[in-house]
Amino acid sequence: MTTLAQVLGEHTREGELYERYGADGVRCFACGHCCRIPDGGAGVCKVRFNRGGTLMVPWGYVSGLHCDPIEKKPFFHAFPGGNAYSFGMLGCDLHCSYCQNWVTSQALRDPEAVSSAFEITPAEMVHDALLQGADAIVSTYNEPLITTEWAVAIFRQARAAGLATGYVSNGNATPQVLDYLLPWLDLFKIDLKGFDDRRYRELGGRLQPVLDTIAAVHRSGTWVEIVTLLVPGFNDSAEELAQLAGFLASVSPDIPWHVTAFHPDYKLTETPRTTTDLLLHAVEIGRRAGLRFVYAGNIPGAVGDLENTRCPSCAKVLVRRAGFSVRENQITTSGTCPACGYAVPGRWTRKPRMS
Ligand code: SF4
């Protein structure tokens, strides 16, 4: 029987984010692990591997395609009510025990994670995205940094067709991958999973590369929103949340911060769900740190006004939401509050489409 690893091994091409060392070693720069890979070996992510001194990377397939509300990514300051044509690949550079996409992210590590893949071209994806009325094409469902060459091939064609482009990522990037990716990226959602390096290492990563990524993406002008899944007992202390929110505010108080509720998943099945009170407490900490846009997610209908966007200047409700659904959008076409003229940070104007 052909294994998934064998199928994926046939859907590759030479990567661009690497250097050679020694006779036939390679060093990959697609994520913060910067793996040194001997001939015949694979990186931590399992999807990039060394074949005879050449780094081979995923190419020409996806494992999932869906047109989702852009609020589901979540992007709350980009094209409200818009459609995000979302594609997923397989694999991840981390191994979070509470991953909510573990079937795709851990497909090459965990025999319980049964996934499949199908061939597709960038042109076919862009054509389909336009047919479905998408506003953006977004790499999501698994960690996109590890398949960045393939994403950029898609994004080049998406941009030419008038689509915005996005990543939903853990942010474990390198300067090299950001230099390669950001010229083609409009929207970047980054998980900031806590503010404790020891905890990050339990998940298979490190805190500092994620902080560096957030600062670099913001500096570049690419739109960035941050998500923190609040896991009881893991990252929910008031002190840690205050440090995390303080860091975000130091980068920019205009960065939206989504604090979202955990539900038991994958290997973390004994931990209780995040309560509404804990979410509200985290929101309050974010506001005290100076963040202007703090949202509470994953408990729709239970968090009052915290799914809406309010003008920081006059407090008018600008975008009213119920879960991922936009019920009202008052932001002007020039991105301002209609009541007081405050310029609301985000990406509000859609690009002209290729017909
Ligand atoms: S993407 Fe990250 S984990 Fe995968 S090979 Fe490259 S550096 Fe290693």
Which bin fits the share of residues in helices?
25-40%
Mean pLDDT: 92
Bound molecules: iron/sulfur cluster
**Binned strand content:** 15-25%
Query: What is the count of DSSP helices, taking H or I runs of 4+ residues?
Result: 9
Give the distance, in angstroms, between the N- and C-terminal Cα atoms. Answer: 44 Å
Largest sheet: 8 strands, mixed
Major sheet strand order: 8-9-11-12-13-14-15-16
Number of strands: 19
Assembly annotation? single chain
Name the poorly predicted regions: none
- State the shape: globular
Order of helices and strands: HEEEEEEEEEHEHEHEHEHHEHEHEEEE
Q: What is the C-alpha radius of gyration, as a whole number of Å?
A: 20 Å
Task: Tell me what the structure shows.
Helix 3 crosses helix 4 (148-160). 25% of the residues lie in helices and 23% in strands. It is built from 9 helices and 19 strands. The chain has helices at residues 4-10, 102-105, 122-131, 148-160, 175-181, 197-202, 207-220, 238-251, 276-289; strands at 12-14, 18-21, 25-28, 36-37, 49-51, 54-58, 61-62, 64-69, 83-88, 118-119, 136-139, 164-169, 187-191, 223-230, 257-261, 294-297, 309-310, 317-322, 325-329. The chain is α/β, with parallel strands linked by helices. Bound molecules: iron/sulfur cluster (SF4). Iron/sulfur cluster binds next to loops. The site of iron/sulfur cluster has 12 residues, from loops.
